[in-house]
Amino acid sequence: MTPAEIAAWVNDAKQGMENALRAKPLDICEQYEKQLKELQEAYGEAMLELRARKKLASLLGEDDR
Predict the structure, then answer these.
(1) What CA–CA distances, in Å, run from 18 to 5, 14, 21, 25?
(2) How many helices (H) and strands (E) does the chain have?
(3) Using the 8-state DSSP alphabet, how is residue 61 labeled?
(4) Contact, 57 vs 63, CB < 8 A?
(5) DSSP secondary structure string, 7-25?
(6) What's the superkingdom here (predicted)?
């Protein structure tokens, strides 16, 4: 390895750390809130589908009880 290669690696590492530190906590919070909302919506849809399937099975006399 040449000193130039090592210097390039160090420079890349510094730039990566600077970019990581630029992330604003509010941006990260907003991302988590958006993800939480999407997961809650998916959960709600899954629960509705499960209830609908159970109701259909009940109406068709296919209860597993």
Answers:
(1) 20, 6, 5, 15
(2) 2, 0
(3) T
(4) yes
(5) HHHHHHHHHHHHHHHHS-H
(6) Bacteria
In single-letter form, the type of residue at position 50 comes to L
The residue written with tokens 């609908």 in the block is 52
Please give the C-alpha separations between residue 10 and each of 13, 21, 63, in angstroms, as whole numbers.
5, 17, 65
Report pTM: 0.53
Distance CA 52, CA 43 (A): 14
For residues 50 and 44, what is the distance between their CA atoms, to the nearest angstrom? Answer: 10
